[in-house]
Here is the input.
Amino acid sequence: MFREVEGMTELNTSKPIKITDTTTFTITLDIDSTSFGDYLRQGVVENIKVAKTVPFHSWADSFKNPAGSSQYGMLETPDLSKFGRSEQLHAALIGILAFVNHNKRYPETADVAECLGMAKDRIATLQKESESNIQVEIEEPVFAKAVQWSASSISPMAAFFGGFIAQEIVKFTGKYSPLKQWLHFDIYETLPREENVNRVTTGTRYDD
Here is the structure.
């Protein structure tokens, strides 16, 4: 924002103007100044942070078409060594929520096949109704892990998302840019390597 400019006084009362280029002695402004008076000398430039409006889709719409709600029109992957994992996890989420809505409980290991069928049917229905652009060939090992542990509270992941959500709440004040609009994340490396894990609860804080 400008003030105390001698000549070209229209700048003194203007709204914040974007500076598009700078050199040692000049700045270039994104404004039509053909009707302004001649610039004479001096002036003070103030850096003004301009609020930016960020549109968001509703959860219902975004869940059907997550890539359409993302900043770059694609699902982003926090860990590039797992490129494409976001699409896999979203497909798993679709199957898990369909199972929960139908059975009123979270799926277990024995429910993987049923959950997979529900995910494929739901994705096909959304694509047929032109409500989704989800294009994914489900990797069954990834899908199975998401289903088997969907009812669990995995401590490292809970800690990660606790901090992440706290940061997003702070962003509601207008400081920093919020996540737009999905983050799919897994830390399968923390799961037991054994296929058959004793899931019997012991009544302690270490129950999952």
